[in-house]
């Protein structure tokens, strides 16, 4: 059965975000120049109708009024990727975890590199908070939206205008 794919673009403090829905359910959030961003022709027609609640929650998040999203998600990925993304949803607002801690939580202590690869392919950035994952020494390792955006998101969530030098 054919799927209906639509998208819209919304403003954010981190440049425009492209929201994509499959059969009316949010499936992707893309930043401008994001790594692993699929071609725009895969985004479907432009239609803001399925995104009302997503936009409301994103606006509340960026206003500092929302710390956890409550949205149905249509996440396409391997079973391992989806298990990593589920772990990302468990990282509280304003906190971070290392790739190793996520691997350990998944019962695969030696899989931090695989966790990093799955984290990098997270299709729903910000809402599934892959920006909250850092390197073992506290370094701000790669982020699909760019390390500067990661730094700004973490600073925003921590309530600081900047992050401690130890996180760089």
Would you write up a description of this structure?
The chain has 168 residues and is of the alpha/beta class. It has helices at residues 52-62, 79-88, 99-105, 112-120, 147-158; strands at 5-10, 17-22, 25-31, 45-46, 97-98, 133-134. The strands form 2 sheets. A 4-stranded mixed β-sheet has the order 3-2-1-4, with no helix packed on it.
Key descriptive features of the protein:
alpha/beta; four-stranded mixed beta sheet; 15% strand; two-stranded parallel ribbon; globular; 29% helix; 5 helices; disordered C terminus; 168 residues
Helix-strand sequence: EEEEHHEHHEH
- Termini, distance in Å? 48 Å
Count of helical regions: 5
Lateral strand order in the biggest sheet: 3-2-1-4
Radius of gyration: 16 Å
- Percent of residues in helices: 25-40%
Structure described in brief:
The protein is α/β, with parallel strands linked by helices. Helix content is 29%, strand content 15%. The protein contains five helices and six strands; from the N terminus they run ββββααβααβα.
């Amino acid at each position: 059965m054919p799927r209906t794919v639509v998208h819209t673009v919304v403003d954010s403090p981190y440049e425009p975000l492209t929201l994509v829905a499959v059969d009316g359910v949010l499936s992707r959030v893309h930043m401008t120049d994001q790594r692993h961003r699929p071609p725009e022709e895969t985004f479907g027609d432009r239609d803001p109708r399925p995104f009302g609640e997503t936009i409301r929650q994103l606006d509340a998040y960026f206003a500092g009024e929302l710390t956890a999203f409550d949205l149905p998600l249509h996440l396409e990925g391997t079973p391992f990727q989806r298990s990593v993304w589920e772990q990302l949803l468990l990282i509280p607002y304003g906190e971070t975890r290392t790739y190793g801690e996520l691997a350990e939580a998944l019962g695969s202590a030696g899989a931090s590199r695989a966790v990093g690869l799955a984290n990098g392919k997270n299709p729903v950035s910000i809402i599934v908070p892959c920006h909250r994952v850092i390197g073992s020494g506290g370094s701000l390792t790669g982020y699909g939206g760019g390390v500067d955006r990661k730094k700004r998101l973490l600073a925003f969530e921590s309530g600081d205008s900047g992050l401690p030098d130890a996180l760089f």
